[in-house]
Amino acid sequence: QSATGSLYRFPVIPVKGVPLMNHIANNWDSIWAFSPHPTDLLIATYPKAGTTWTQEIVDLLLHNGDTEICKRAPTPVRIPFLEIFSPPPIPSGLDLLEKMPPPRVIKTHLPFHLVPPGFWEKNCKVIYVARNAKDNLVSYYHFDRMNLTQPEPGPWEGYINKFMRGELAWGSWYDHVKGFWEEREKRNILYLFYEDMKENPRREVERIMQYLDLSLSDDVISRIVELTSFKSMKENPMANYTFIPKPVFDHSISPFMRKGEVGDWTNHFTPGQSKMFDEDYEKQMKDANIPFRTLI
Ligand code: A3P
Questions:
Q1: pLDDT tens, 84-129?
Q2: In Å, how far from its chain's centre is CA 215?
Q3: What architecture does CATH give domain 12-284?
Q4: Which residues touch 5 (CB under 8 Å, ≥6 apart)?
Q5: Which is it for the CA torsion 270, 132, 199, 61, positive or negative?
Q6: Is it true that the peptide bond before 47 is cis, omega within 30 degrees of 0?
Q7: Considering only CA atoms, which residue is closest to atom 22 of ligand 1?
Q8: What is the CA radius of gyration of the chain?
Q9: Which of 6, 130, 157, 288 sits a CA distance of 20 to 30 A from 180?
Q10: How many Cα atoms occupy the beta-carbon half-sphere of 56 within 13 Å?
């Protein structure tokens, strides 16, 4: 927040080579020092990969599908965003976490090497969600237009290049998805794909349930699948981010719950842009064997 109290688009500052918004970079020491409890669960994603969706699934699973309990507060109050220090009215992630007794569910967009080491020392469970690069980029572009505290997206064509160069807030998508992929077995990370969740939400909800050592009835699982459909979540005021004031999130520019589909990139990339992107993708991802799908 500026001295006059008005909001502005935060610039990014590199932290260990990763561009993070200044309110995060300026509080880096306290974020890095965060010490979780062994029962805490971390949901980690590159921005716009399906974080909110996964948060809702996890919250419902942990509360046996009880909608009243899961509407107790907006998503970032139920599941604090570890590194966020702004914008108001949501308090910082660390402030919220301090007041919350474990076991807690915690959200982060930090790449693997910036996740506070306490999570690994305590063997916390971690769910990682990855989304194919092109849809992830499109979603981030629209989000950067509507979230008036994110760095200015600029025109579409240039945005593609910023994404490819890893210049957006939270850095390189390529490094992000690879970082967690490489560590997934050693660290017992549940690595999920947005496309799998769209293709067969029930299967993925059950995978999450098993990872959390829960066993819910078939009826409850069906209800959770229904409650976490794009349509249900778009209508849920505690999950659709309409609780963020308009000077911060301007849903009239682009709603937070925008499309929720696989393959919307085909409506954005020209054939030339797609070719250029794919050629660069091959180079950046050549050593990684991550089974991404850009269409289902
Ligand atoms: P789109 O912009 O493509 O619509 P995050 O929560 O990580 O910020 O990701 C937001 C993206 O996930 C947005 O993508 C949003 O619409 C989509 N999303 C949110 N809830 C969803 C759901 N229940 N089903 C499918 N997509 C969902």
A1: 997 666 689 999 999 999 999 999 999 999 999 999 999 999 999 9
A2: 26
A3: 3-Layer(aba) Sandwich (3.40)
A4: none
A5: negative
A6: no
A7: 230
A8: 18
A9: 157
A10: 26
How far is residue 271 from each of residues 24, 140, 265, measured CA to CA in Å? 37, 20, 11
Would the CB of 53 count as within 6 Å of ligand 1?
yes
Residues of the chain with pLDDT under 50: 1-4
Q: Which of 82, 8, 12, 90 is nearest to 45 (CA)?
A: 82
Note the helical H segments in the chain: 22-25, 28-32, 51-62, 67-70, 75-78, 93-98, 118-121, 133-146, 156-165, 173-183, 194-199, 201-211, 218-227, 230-235, 271-284
Question: Across the chain, how many H-helices and E-strands are there?
Answer: 15, 6
Query: Which backbone phi and psi does 78 adopt, to 5 degrees?
Result: -70, -40
Tokens 């980029």 identify what position?
Answer: 137
233 Cβ inside 6 Å of ligand 1: yes
Helix axes 201-211, 218-227, angle to 10 degrees: 120
Tell me which residues are annotated as active site: 109
Each residue's pLDDT tens digit, 188-220: 999 999 999 999 999 999 999 999 999 999 999
Q: Which residue owns the Cα nearest ligand 1 atom 23?
A: 230
* Pairing between β-strand 105-108 and β-strand 189-193 as defined by DSSP bridges: unpaired
- For residue 159, give every residue at least 6 positions away whose Cβ sits within 8 Å of its Cβ, in sequence order, or none: 137, 141, 144, 153
Q: Which two tokens stand for residue 67?
A: 């909608």
Residue having the nearest C-alpha atom to atom 26 of ligand 1? 260
Question: Which ipTM value was assigned to this complex?
Answer: 1.00
Looking at the DSSP bridge assignments, the partners of residue 192 are 129
